Amino acid sequence: MKTGETENRFLSEEEDRWLGKMVREAMRQRPSAPPGSECPDPVIIRKLAFHENIDPPTAKTALLHMAECYECSQLALRYVDEYREQKR
Q: Residue 15 falls within a domain, yes or no?
């Protein structure tokens, strides 16, 4: 991790690992969005993948949704790949 990056992270390393675990579980199960639930705005998913600050209630709602929604978890993984490419 680069100097100064820690204080700019929205998710702690533990939360980041938890998110990765939840996304992997969602991918294995291939569930779709729960009936009546609305997928979060892709901008929110991207902000999470890029470790940008968003308000905690919005983050929590989006993370819980992504853990249950295959399509959103796939989008998150694409954004994570994009984030990693930019960090190189």
A: no
